[in-house]
Amino acid sequence: MITSGVALGLLITGKVSNTTIRKTVLIIAILVWLSWFTVIGVYTQAYGVDKKVIKAYPETKAAHSIGMETKEHTFYTGLILATLLPLIAYTTDIENNKAARKMLIGILILLIVGGIVLDALGAWISIAAKIAWSLGGG
Amino acid sequence: MVIKETYKSVYQWLASTFGHHWIGHGILVILVFILTTYIASNLVKTGELSETRATHLLYLIVAGTIISFVIIGGFFLIEFSI
Questions:
Q1: What pLDDT score does B42 carry?
Q2: How many CB atoms lie within 10 A of CB A49?
Q3: What mean pLDDT, rounded, does chain B reach?
Q4: What is the mean pLDDT of each run of 10 residues along chain A (138 residues)?
Q5: Residue B54's pLDDT band (boundaries 50, 70, 90)?
Q6: Which of A45, A64, A98, A120 is most buried, judging by how many CB atoms fall within 10 Å of its CB?
Q7: Residue environment code for A74-98, b if the CB has 16+ CB neighbours within 10 A, otherwise e
Q8: φ, ψ for residue A108 (rounded to 5)?
Q9: Cβ separation A99–B49 shorter than 8 A
Q10: Which residues in chain A have Cβ-Cβ distances shorter than 8 Å to B23?
Q11: Would you state the pLDDT for residue A44?
Q12: pTM (2 d.p.)
């Protein structure tokens, strides 16, 4: 999200070279892809213990059934949006093409808003796990 | 996502083929993205991105993202409520 904020700032001020913006958005795409690869083990293996406990209590069940289910599936929208960034940046002249800049700005805003939403859902799940464990751990 | 969560056979096929339904779902999403991007890039070969086309594409991306989120969140909200 920080890198997306930097890229957004560079694009809005308009003082950006093709090389800088291409490298920045490529870093964003790589980071989002890395977040997928690194979270696979956490979500498919480690989270199973918390999931069982969260689902055991009516007070916390919604955190998994709504929060985590929405989070895990919405993540792929972000993955695709992040992948679009370098595709646009490397195939257009960002310095001189206002339209391409506009597209990048729009996608970056979606990524930042999406990141905040996913973080909020993550916080809900994290708190629900603590509550569920404090209730007796299933 | 809706098909996967509605039809257990699809869910189980993804889980057994890819080790976990979520990984299988992701791989399918990426394959669809590559395919549609390839088709779209071959259909539209008009040089530099114009202001009008960029605006239309951006509207499409924003609308697609919001609709996807509403479908995903709405589906699980309804499923949890019933």
A1: 79
A2: 13
A3: 88
A4: 85 86 95 93 88 92 94 94 94 88 94 95 94 84
A5: confident
A6: A64
A7: bbbbbbbbbbbbbebbeebebeebe
A8: -65, -40
A9: yes
A10: 40, 44
A11: 86
A12: 0.88
Q: What does the domain layout of chain A look like in residue ranges?
A: 2-133
Of A130, A127, A133, A119, which is closest to residue A70 (Cα–Cα)?
A: A119
Asked if the Cβ–Cβ distance from A106 to B61 is below 8 Å, we say yes
pLDDT bracket for residue B48 (50, 70, 90):
low
Token digits of residue A25: 């958005």
Q: Which residue of A has its CA nearest to B1?
A: A73
What residue in A sits closest to B65 (Cα-Cα)? A77
Pairwise CB contact (< 8 Å): B65 & A76: no
Burial class (CB in 10 A: 0-12, 13-18, 19+), A51: middle
State the pLDDT at residue B53: 82
Alpha-carbon Rg for chain A, nearest whole angstrom, is: 18
Mean pLDDT across the stretch B49-71?
Answer: 89
Query: Which residues, in sequence order, are CB contacts of A63 under 8 Å at separation 6+?
Result: A54, A124, A125, A127, A128, A129
Pick the residue from chain B with its C-alpha nearest to A62.
B80
